[in-house]
Amino acid sequence: MASYHRPTDLSEALRILSHEPSLRILAGATDVYPAWTGAQATGGSRGHADVLDISNIAELKGIADRGDHWWLGALTTWTDIVRADLPPLFDGLKAAAREIGGIQIQNRGTIAGNICTASPAGDSIPCLLALDAEIECAEGRAFCLPLAHFITGYRKIVLDGGIVTGIRVPKQSGRGHFLKLGARRYLVISIAMVSGTFDIDEATGVIRTARIAVGACSAVAQRLPQLEARLTGTRTGAIKPTSDDLAHLAPIDDVRANADYRRAAALQLVSDLLDQVAMSHRSEA
Fold it and tell me: How far apart are CA 162 and CA 154, in angstroms?
């Protein structure tokens, strides 16, 4: 029989995990159960994995202003993000949260679960890259890592024997944006998606800083540093992205799209995002 643990505080969870390091960590369970039923359907394991259910740990819940950064607890759900009173910098993450699954998934799925699954199609990941997010972990000791260093490859993260406790987003000016492409409007895994945060001088329309990330077009979502550098110091709408800006992406062929289509879609999404930024600035000016 599989073992099941549901601790009520982080120290207890870490103690259990130190004695049973192979435990499957479960929070919203929106990824775990589909993976398990999928394995059964294809003749995989017929048993349940040993589980560490962290969903009842109160200290991993909530969204807080912590002075120089915003803190999103590991158990923050997509619904929590949509309803939270957050600055415009988080508008892209909120837009992604509204398009992740249906209402039931949004009520249960957690932001840390989306990160730790480390799927190339994880919609939160390009948003958090554009926010310069850091991942807060507990693994014997507490530490933080930039998201870009936390996810190391396809469904691979650096954490081994620890627990993600939260996400830190440094306070900065600007507004976030998000666009995705799927086979239909909702309830779909992304073919490609893009998120960006832009700090724009209200009077002149000049972009002070731009951070743009593309997901589902490489094993890990990628920032676009060349395009970010070209945009900085220019007026909104003055520069269009080119294929060279996305040359470092490595899309694959799969059942949703082939690599060429993904690359073209990503370029169009980035272009659409920049148009959205320009229109948003004009409407506020």
Answer: 19
